[in-house]
């Protein structure tokens, strides 16, 4: 071809240059620290903490044993707190005298509390230490609400307790019943008492007999002399409501002549009159609602 020129192209330097035989590629060597195995300290850490805890616990124990003779002082102060009406602080201190002979750390607070709560007039006791040599006692007295039979009193929770003297509590209502029914009788007393109070009646005696029948005697007061209510076994609240309704309509004017009222009827009641003014002795009058 005309005008054509052939040129011999030289290969670019560094490209496709034949590698001489026997030559090897140069590789950078890793530092010696990278090639050595690394030390694993996790195992040492896991073993170190238990050892440190044991050492610390042992040191604390030894320190406490050495300081105990200096910190454990004799009990020199007894503080009795609470509103006390039936027992004296002197009686309390005499009761716990065998316990306070111990030192601050060795005094048996649980036994002291149990001993105090065995006193008839103490319902609840709290005992605590106050550094460096004091024991504080907080007392809650029994709240007598009624007499239980002839030998005990009942608190507001229906729990019986027996003080030494009962002569000063004859003004309290007297409740009777099986020994296992103390709380039941107390609860029934509270309910019936609230229902009778607006009428001017109070409860002088409430009895639950073994067969389950209830008998109530009101106290003498502004409403008149006491009367006996025979309530039967069940539905006491309904029977009391019936009595209140008939009382306001019919019985209020004659209450001074009434000795007892029998509420064991389904729809009415029977009235028993007092002897001097009894209109009939054979059959009581029956009032229907």
Automatic annotation (TrEMBL):
Q: Where in the cell is it found?
A: Cell inner membrane; Membrane
Task: Mention any Pfam family matching this sequence.
Answer: FtsQ_DivIB_C
Q: Does the keyword Transmembrane helix apply?
A: yes
Q: What are the record keywords, sorted? A: Cell cycle, Cell division, Cell inner membrane, Cell membrane, Membrane, Transmembrane, Transmembrane helix
Q: How does it sit in the membrane?
A: Single-pass type II membrane protein
The family assignment reads: Belongs to the FtsQ/DivIB family. FtsQ subfamily.
This protein's assembly is summarised as:
Part of a complex composed of FtsB, FtsL and FtsQ.
Q: Which HAMAP family match?
A: FtsQ_subfam (MF_00911)
Protein name from the UniProt record: Cell division protein FtsQ
Q: Tell me the organism's taxonomic lineage.
A: Bacteria, Pseudomonadati, Pseudomonadota, Gammaproteobacteria, Pseudomonadales
């Amino acid at each position: 071809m005309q005008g054509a020129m052939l040129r011999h192209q030289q290969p670019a330097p560094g490209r496709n240059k034949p590698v001489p035989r026997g030559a090897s590629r140069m590789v950078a060597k890793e530092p010696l620290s990278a090639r050595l195995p690394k030390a694993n300290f996790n195992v040492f850490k896991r073993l170190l903490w238990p050892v440190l805890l044991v050492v610390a616990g042992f040191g604390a124990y030894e320190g406490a044993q050495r300081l105990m003779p200096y910190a454990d002082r004799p009990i020199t102060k007894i503080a009795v707190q609470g509103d006390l009406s039936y027992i004296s602080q002197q009686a309390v201190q005499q009761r716990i005298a065998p316990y306070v002979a111990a030192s601050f750390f060795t005094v048996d607070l649980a036994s002291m509390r149990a001993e105090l709560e065995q006193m008839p007039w103490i319902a609840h006791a709290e005992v605590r230490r106050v550094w460096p040599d004091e024991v504080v006692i907080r007392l809650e007295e029994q709240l007598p609400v009624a007499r239980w039979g002839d030998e005990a009193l009942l608190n507001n929770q229906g729990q019986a307790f027996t003080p030494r003297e009962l002569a000063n509590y004859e003004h309290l209502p007297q409740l009777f019943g099986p020994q296992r029914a103390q709380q039941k009788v107390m609860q029934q007393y509270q309910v019936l008492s609230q229902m009778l109070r607006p009428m001017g009646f109070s409860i002088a005696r409430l009895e639950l007999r073994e067969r389950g029948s209830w008998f109530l005697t009101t106290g003498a007061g502004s409403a008149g002399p006491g009367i006996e209510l025979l309530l039967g076994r069940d539905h006491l609240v309904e029977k009391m409501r019936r009595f209140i309704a008939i009382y306001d309509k019919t019985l209020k004017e004659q209450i001074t002549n009434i000795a007892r009222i029998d509420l064991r009827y389904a729809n009415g009641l029977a009235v028993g009159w007092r002897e001097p003014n009894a209109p009939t002795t054979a059959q009581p009058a029956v009032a229907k609602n």
